[in-house]
Amino acid sequence: MKIFGIVGSSGSGKTTLLKRLIPELVARGLRLATVKHSHHGASADQPGDPGFEARRAGAVASLMAGPERWIRVDIRSPIEEPGLDELLAKLSPADLVLIEGFKRYPHAKIEVFRPEHGRAPLWPDDPSVVAVASDATALSGLDRPLLSLEDMPGMAMFLMSHPGTQ
To answer: Which of 2, 33, 35, 91 has the fewest CB atoms within 10 Å around its CB?
Structure first.
């Protein structure tokens, strides 16, 4: 299973890129999985759902299962936040896992960078950023591939040909 991160500052377009890139990769025959890190609480269900109500009543976990999918929700304290390795071990087998966030982990990453946002890029100080996806046509000092945010076929080819992190 190859993993690749999609990182960048808040509002740079990481989620939008994933929504456009995933269909391109799936059309090429890849089985894809995603992992998203959030600094905010994550919830798979809402008040009124049995699992939500069970956790509100004190259960530490709930699982909802149907014929096409299952959803597991574990309650943990903030200091027990799972690491990326633990989360990857819980995934179904996939050819490629795209990870949004977890930018401090050492896996191969593409940075979504938009100069007009005025934020400093990660790539100058992070050797695990192996390419930059941008709406800019050139970035001063960039010493790795520059991928266009408009070129999903090109980005898919880059991901498929790069070894990523195994």
So the answer is: 91
